[in-house]
Specification:
The protein is an alpha/beta fold and 341 residues long. It has two domains: 2-18 and 217-310, Conserved Hypothetical Protein Ylqf, Chain: A, domain 2 (Orthogonal Bundle), CATH 1.10.1580.10; 25-186, 3-Layer(aba) Sandwich (Rossmann fold), CATH 3.40.50. Helices cover 45% and strands 10% of the residues. It has 14 helices and six strands. It has helices at 2-6, 25-37, 59-65, 84-94, 109-121, 141-153, 199-207, 213-216, 218-231, 237-241, 250-261, 272-284, 300-310, 316-337; strands at 43-49, 69-75, 98-101, 129-135, 175-178, 183-186. Strand 1 (43-49), helix 3 (59-65) and strand 2 (69-75) form a beta-alpha-beta unit. The relative contact order is 0.15. Guanosine-5'-triphosphate is lined by residues 75-76, 78-79, 103-105, 135, 137-143, 161-163, 165-168, 189-190.
Length: 341
């Protein structure tokens, strides 16, 4: 607070009205495939992003999980503050969700321990043990599967990974990750909610890479990131980016940063897109330090669950609207890919 006041950073709220939705056809199809496979599954690993412990909860998975055993894995823990881990685990435990934090570049053996322990307790029931890994796009499901395979059977990459959301497009075939007892995993496509009820949730998901940037509007994402860094007193972005001073104004930041990184077109005009992308990438790579974008103060988690669970399912009309919007988006993407627009 004192830091902000002395630096004249005065913004206290952030609003953005436009809704952001991304639910292409492969997600709806993937969700159906997951439901079809569910009776063969013994454990669901629901992967979330540690930087947005609440915003990466997809209520679609609540319906999918039903009464199955579930382990919540908060991945990308290397990018989130360590001190949130205990709060999140306690809050999830209150809701009967066992949560662990992982970084796929390090050991993920605690996940295997959970699965192997369940399987060994009842070998008759589990001659083999099947796990389905679900989660929003880009939370690191495929990376997690590769890490589990590396740890469990010392074998190489089985699932494709990528820095952009939507790499995995369909439910995979079974991937072996442990020998005795045999444990198999299914990779699944990242799935968003068909209709994201709250714009701030959508912005946070997009900022952490869960929604394609061109859908979410990079200038809005960067503006929110700047607002959040200032609110958290994370003024170190100036040093990291090599700019003269912190600012609350995204245009001023773009101006300083573009000159610093040389994002200029012929004639010296600023390349805004390139500059915004540079700023977003620096955050996603963790260059501004460990950051949590969700508020986890007392009451905030209760409030989140209360509002999410009360959120009525979409009406037929809303559902059709969302479907049409998704179709329009797909046609637009196809036209763009063909260079027609
Ligand atoms: N910093 C960090 N990056 C990670 C971690 N796990 C995965 N990533 C990176 O996150 C990006 C997405 O990883 P994927 O494994 O492709 O994610 P996914 O959930 O399978 O993505 P979809 O195909 O969209 O469903 C990649 O660039 C990974 O290298 C992690 O623990 N820490």
């Amino acid at each position: 607070m004192a830091v902000r006041a002395s630096l004249n950073l005065t913004r206290t709220s952030f609003t953005h009205e436009a809704t952001i939705n991304w639910f292409p056809g492969h997600m709806a199809k993937g969700l159906k495939q997951m439901r079809d496979q569910m009776r063969t599954i013994d454990l669901i690993i629901e992967t979330r992003d540690a930087r947005i412990p609440l915003s990466s909860i997809n209520m679609e998975f609540e319906r999918l999980v039903g009464s199955k055993d579930r382990l919540v894995v908060y991945n990308k823990a290397d990018l989130a503050p360590i001190e949130i881990q205990r709060t999140v685990q306690e809050e999830m435990a209150k809701r009967q969700q066992r949560a662990i934090f992982t970084d796929t570049n390090k050991s993920v053996s605690q996940i295997l321990d959970v699965a192997v322990d369940i399987a060994r307790r009842d070998p008759v029931k589990y001659p083999q043990f099947s796990i389905m890994v679900v989660g929003m796009p880009n939370v690191g499901k495929s990376s997690l599967i590769n890490a589990l395979r590396r740890t469990g059977v010392n074998r190489g990459k089985a699932a494709s990974t990528g820095a952009k959301p939507g790499v995995t497009r369909a439910v995979s075939s079974k991937i072996k990750v442990f020998d005795k007892p045999p444990v198999y995993l299914l990779d699944t496509p990242g799935v968003m909610m068909p209709h994201i009820p709250d714009t701030m949730t959508a912005i946070k998901v997009a900022l952490t890479g869960g929604i394609k940037d061109n859908i979410a509007d990079e200038s809005v994402l960067a503006d929110y990131l700047l607002f959040r860094l200032n609110r958290l007193d994370h003024i170190n972005y100036c040093q990291t980016l090599g700019i003269e001073r912190p600012t609350d104004d995204i245009n001023e930041l773009v101006d300083m940063l573009a000159r610093k990184i040389g994002a200029l077109r012929h004639g010296g005009e600023i390349d805004t897109d390139k500059t915004l992308q540079f700023f977003l990438k620096a955050f996603r790579q963790g260059r501004f330090g460990r950051i949590c974008l969700d508020d986890l103060d007392e009451g905030a988690v209760d409030e989140f669950f209360k509002s999410s669970l009360l959120e009525p399912p979409m009406s037929k009309n809303q559902g059709q609207k969302a479907k049409r919007a998704a179709q329009r988006l797909r046609s637009l993407e196809r036209a763009k890919a063909k260079g027609l627009i």
